[in-house]
Amino acid sequence: MSLPQRFVYFEQHKSLRALITRLGFAAIFQVYPKPDKDMVIRFSESFMKADETGDAVAKELFADRRPAEGMRLLGQGIEQGSASLVDEQGQCPVPQLKQLLAAAEQPPQWLNEDLIEHACRIIHRCGNHAMYALGDLGLLGGYANSDISKPLAFTGALNGNSSFDRVSETTSFWYDVTEPGGLKVGAKGYNSAIRVRVMHALVRARLAKHPKWDNEQWGLPINQGDSLATNIAFSMIMIFGCSLLGWYFRDKDVRSILHLWRYTAYLMGDDYQQLPQTRKEGIEWLYMVAMSNRINPDEDSLELAASYLESFKQVPGPKIYQWYVYWLHRIYAGFFIPYDLKKALRLPTTYGFKWLPLVQFPFIRVGSWLANHWGWLDKRLRRYGRLGQHYIVSSRLQGREVGFEDKETLTR
């Protein structure tokens, strides 16, 4: 199988940048990453693969139907179950959708509900810091690689006025998935995962027909490789960013968070069997994803990065609050993102304020360690942490329900 030109792990993994990255991970996680060659090859090949089941469902729902009818059938199947798609005569107008939902409704044998619940508790404990790590490190830092941003750039999904809405939708998805019981059949996280899966398939079908889309350069649109990398962002980049701020993660904590996102990948049609299950595997995956990406921001990347930060000036509230939120994320981005990526993305300076997050480090480290031994402290941290996460989501959505629908836009 030919690999897209964007995959540069084999060129980069012996570089000075790779060595510095490995040493950094070893210092933070006590794991020196050394992904084996078979693991890297499987990951590289996934950039030329897609979610074929999701593609079949999207075609079945929308190729010969009005969008409203397709969305109605999708909503019915998700909310009422796959059995509701069969009429009194035993006929099913959407057998592909029924098959997808029937599989999703049967949890895999490897699913461990205790680990899922534990993951939610740890994520809640991290509070707003979990969301800062995902946005100000994972999302913003990821724009330094223009390849993974191409679907966003082509559709305008995170440019200009769309940035605030799309970041809000991603935040809502993350919140629903990390709610206790959120991935059970019929719960909001489960529903969101299925809807996002179909929405991705719709966008993939449109981009695949676009005359400017270059498979040889970028791989398939919204391919399995990028989906797996995004999954690693939700799990390991969150853990990495929170660790930099002082949060303490035991092996069980890491294993639980990886398990939660592995099951989410299962629901979303991603190749979950490739994903890590332990701290060591997680660090190897984080390193592999970092070394597989080029640092090649283009005009699209710069616009996406600028739009991300500017979007915080749109949060509801007085002007002074909007500037506070904007500067808060500007400071955290300055703290999280390495100098070479910040320079490449032309991120605005923080005038030295980027070191302010370090003031919290000793208090967070001691508090998170003690929470593992004092139940009352753990309960209090989880309660206030989740309240903070809820406030961020609710203030952005302002009561709006997120449908995860294809906006059917193209900017080129």
Please name the defining characteristics of this protein.
2 domains; 63% helix; mainly alpha
Approximately how much helix is present in the residues? 55-70%
Structural class, by secondary structure, is mainly alpha
Sketch the major β-sheet: none
* Number of DSSP strand runs: 0
The N- and C-terminal alpha carbons lie at a distance of 29 Å
Shape: globular
Question: How many structurally independent domains?
Answer: 2
How much of the sequence lies in strands comes to under 5%
* Poorly predicted runs: none
Number of helices: 20
Give the C-alpha Rg. 21 Å
Sequence of secondary-structure elements: HHHHHHHHHHHHHHHHHHHH
pLDDT averaged over residues: 91
Summarize the structure in words:
Helices cover 63% and strands 0% of the residues. Helix 7 (113-126) packs across helix 20, helix 13 runs antiparallel to helix 14 and helix 19 (361-371) crosses helix 20 (375-397). It contains 20 helices and no strands. It has 412 residues and is mainly α.
